[in-house]
Amino acid sequence: MSNLEKKTTPSVRTPNLIVWAPVSESGPGVFFVNLLRILAEHGINVKVVTHSRVGNTCGANLARCEIVEVHSVLEYVRECWQLCRTRGVVFAFHMGVTPPAFACLSRILGIPTIPIIVGSDWFDDLRPKLLSGPLFTRARARWNDMRYKFVCRGKSIVASSIDIVEFLQTVYHIRSESTIVVPTALVDFELFREKSSGPDSQLSGEHTIVFVGRLAAENNLEALIRAMKGVVRSAPNVKLLIVGEGPLHDDLQRLATSLGIEGCVRFLGYVAHDSIPKVIESATLAVFPFSWGAGVGNAVFEAMRTGLPVIMTPINKTASELAANGGIYLVAKGDDTTLTEAILTLLNDPDLRTRIRLAAQDYVRRSLSPPAIAATWRLLLGKVGAV
Predict the structure, then answer these.
(1) Considering only CA atoms, which of 276, 319, 320 is closest in space to residue 296?
(2) Verdict on whether the full-model pTM lies above 0.85
(3) pLDDT per residue over 151-172, tens digit each?
(4) Which long-range contacts (CB under 8 A, 24 or more apart) does 51-59 make?
(5) Which domains does the chain have, with CATH numbers?
C-alpha cells in the first residue's frame, strides 16, 4: 500500500468542494476545521487536502469529510490528477498557507479555484514591518504583487471583510464582481446561546464590563482602563473583567494600580473557550477598543450572539456595517474620554441596551448561523459551477 493510500480516508461520494487548508487545533486550522464540518453537515461533499497531521480531535470533527494528507509534491501532483478527472469540482485554498506552486498547479490542470483571503493574510501585508531595509521591502512587495496578481485571475475570490475587498480593488485592481465577502467568523451556537435579558445584578445597580482578547497594543486596553477611572467616579459599582493573556499584562496591572482602581479591574488571564460563556453571562457590556489590527474577531460575534451589548471602535468597515444594523454601539474614537461617555450612556439606558441586544442577535442569526454559512457557500459554489 502506498504512502498516500495509507493517509486517505475512504469516501463513496464525489466531492463538490476540495479544500487545501491547515487542519489543526490551533491557529487558522481551527477555523477551517469548523467551517468544513459545517459545510459537510449541511450536505456539501467536502474533500480536504492538507499538509497537516490530522489528530484525533480534528479527525472526529471532520468525520463526514474525506481527508487526504500530502507531505510531498509528488503526492500532491498525484492527487491533483485525480481531481481534474472529476467533473463539477471546485478547489478552494487558504492564501496564507497554501504553497503558490500548488495553487498554480491546480489552475494548470483546469480545476476552478477559489482563493480564500482572511483578515490575517491581508493584515500581514499592511502591518508595520518588523524587518526593514530597501532590499527586504522590495522583495516583499514583489512577492505580494505576484501572489495577488495570481489571485486576480480567479473566477471568484472569497474575502472575509469589505475592507479586504477595497484593498484588493485599490492596490491590485481586482474587479469587485469577482470578489465575494463571506464572513469567516464562526460562532458555536451550542456553546454561545441567546439570552433574552441582562443579568439580575443590573437591577441593583451593579454592572460588569468585559473584554475578551489578547493583551496587546492593537487592542488599546490602556485607554479602556483609563476610561474605567471616569466610569467608577460616576458609577462606583462597576467592575471590569479582562479575559486573556498577552505581553502587556504586567503594564496594564500597574496602570490600574497607579490610577487607584485596582479593586475594580480584574485580570482573569487565560480562560478556556468553553468557559467563556460562563464568564460573560453576568456582564452588562463588552468593550473592544481596537486601535488597529486584522479586523473584527470572533469574540465580538460571540458576545453579540449571547445578546451582550458591544461597544467598539471603528476599526474597519465591517464594524461600521454592524453599527448601521444596530448590532453594536460604535464610538468615534478609542480615547479614554470617549469610551467613558459611551460606557456610561449604555449603563444608564437599559432600553438602548435592549435594542442593541435584539439587533445583534438577529444579525448573527441571519449571517453566521451554520445554515446561513452553508447557504452562502452553496451560492458561491453554484457561481463557479460546482453545485
Answers:
(1) 319
(2) no
(3) 555 557 777 777 777 777 777 6
(4) 51/22, 52/22, 52/23, 52/24, 54/23, 55/24, 55/25, 57/25, 58/23, 58/24, 58/25, 58/29, 58/33
(5) 3-187+369-384 (3.40.50.2000), 200-368 (3.40.50.2000)
